[in-house]
Amino acid sequence: MSLSKNEIKVIQSLQRKKGRIQHRMFFAEGIKVVQELIASSFELSSLYVTKECQDCFDSEQHTLITEGALKKISALKTPSGVLAVFRIADVQELQLDGLVLALDNINDPGNLGTIIRLCDWFGVQQLLCSKDTVDCYNSKVVQATMGSLSRVQINYVNLKEVLEASPSPILVADLDGENLYQTSLPEKAVLVLGNESNGISAELKGLKDRLLTIPRFGSDTESLNVATAAAVILSEFRRNQ
Amino acid sequence: MSLSKNEIKVIQSLQRKKGRIQHRMFFAEGIKVVQELIASSFELSSLYVTKECQDCFDSEQHTLITEGALKKISALKTPSGVLAVFRIADVQELQLDGLVLALDNINDPGNLGTIIRLCDWFGVQQLLCSKDTVDCYNSKVVQATMGSLSRVQINYVNLKEVLEASPSPILVADLDGENLYQTSLPEKAVLVLGNESNGISAELKGLKDRLLTIPRFGSDTESLNVATAAAVILSEFRRNQ
């Protein structure tokens, strides 16, 4: 079957945030992540597969297309053989409870995807993102989440306002704070991680209750990748419970 | 200044492992990582910059080229304005001491780069890679290391032989082992992390002394990204010291 011009146009528009907001849809590519998202709570809108991949999916769900057609709608240089379009779920109301992670201007899609996966692993159900953090339905983010996207509630918010109103203490990951291994961590907290290059933004600096630092054992290295820093700190919160 | 045909050919060949082995050189792109590598122990072979980036580098070191010329040698879709070629340092003799990390068939360049950066942070000086692990001088790995590449000794080895001869215990990260938070960790050990999809290879399975598991707090997620798993386990080793 071939794709209509309109289908192509709509799917191509989903590569951009504007198109995703307009159509309330996003797409994923790659057998594994698509299978995981189909099995998740996301509602499948359409599923396009090439001949080689058709056996990996329920034949009643998918539309068989040519490699040439897939290339037109894929965001990849080398399409993987499957592209699925899902509806974006409605945003649930914000409820700051337990351990909450907040991201301030995270730019890299791979970092955000990895952090969503970490939240899923460590049972952090609520992820707050500043409005300038990369969109979680960006196809590279979706790819890196490996299906965790459906299990973590993600809210894009005015971080300053939300943090100001937070009943839980605000803990910020920083290079110059308390030694993470030697401090006691509260059960309820909002843990804030800042931008890959610049750390947290000036307007949030006054809001912190505590700064946390992962001790460094090497010599000259400047900083950890933000997703690995998230891994270490979330692990430390959970080991104490 | 323009680039000679031969210069272009050599630099393009460095995008592949074969070319890097033949010329004993690798390249890096991006102002920050190039600056860090120039400041490191790597020997700079040549430095190409476009007009916009020339002020970021010592004028005696760099060759000014056009954007068109940079595009010819760059591995990036959108070149960053600087490309530096470095000599690959001689491999030092293997000395398994203290905490050593071993990677079994890690495929993703971003994962390897992030793990090298983690080794640097946590003071792990020796990184063993199986021969089928992605090459650490791959330009995407170099990019992700953010300069840590010069501070971690990386040996590509027959992992089975080296582990068989190891005086320290072999600890393997696994989904079905001892709870990482409730076990005691030795000061000297080789920590083995397996492939992103398949875990450790069959031939290594018999060599392990212990299996370590990062407890899961979420529900359905299948596994952690290998670099974030490395972060959590290395942190756990170091917090105990």
Short descriptors:
60s Ribosomal Protein L30, Chain: A; 6-stranded parallel sheet; alpha/beta; 241 residues; Alpha/beta knot; 31% helix; 4-stranded mixed sheet; homodimer; 2 domains
Descriptive account of the structure:
2 copies of one chain form a homodimer. Chain A is α/β, with parallel strands linked by helices and 241 residues long. Chain A has 2 domains: 5-87, Ribosomal protein L30/S12 (60s Ribosomal Protein L30, Chain: A), CATH 3.30.1330; 99-239, Alpha/beta knot (3-Layer(aba) Sandwich). Helix content of chain A is 31%, strand content 22%. Chain A has 9 helices and 10 strands. The first copy, chain A, has helices at 5-13, 17-23, 31-38, 67-73, 109-121, 139-145, 159-164, 202-205, 226-239, and strands at 25-29, 44-49, 63-64, 82-87, 99-103, 126-130, 153-157, 170-179, 189-193, 210-213. In chain A, the strands form 2 sheets. A 6-stranded parallel β-sheet of chain A has the order 7-6-5-9-8-10. In chain A, α5 links the parallel β5 and β6. In chain A, α5 runs parallel beside α6 and α5 (109-121) packs parallel to α9. The mean pLDDT of chain A is 93. At the A-B interface, α5 and α9 of A face α5 and α9 of B.
Q: Layout of SSEs?
A:
Two copies of one chain form a homodimer.
Chain A (H helix, E strand, L loop, with lengths): L4 H9 L3 H7 L1 E5 L1 H8 L5 E6 L13 E2 L2 H7 L8 E6 L11 E5 L5 H13 L4 E5 L8 H7 L7 E5 L1 H6 L5 E10 L9 E5 L8 H4 L4 E4 L12 H14 L2
Parallel strand pairs in A: 2-3, 5-6, 5-9, 6-7, 8-9, 8-10
Antiparallel strand pairs in A: 1-4, 2-4
Helix pairs in contact in A: 5-6, 5-9
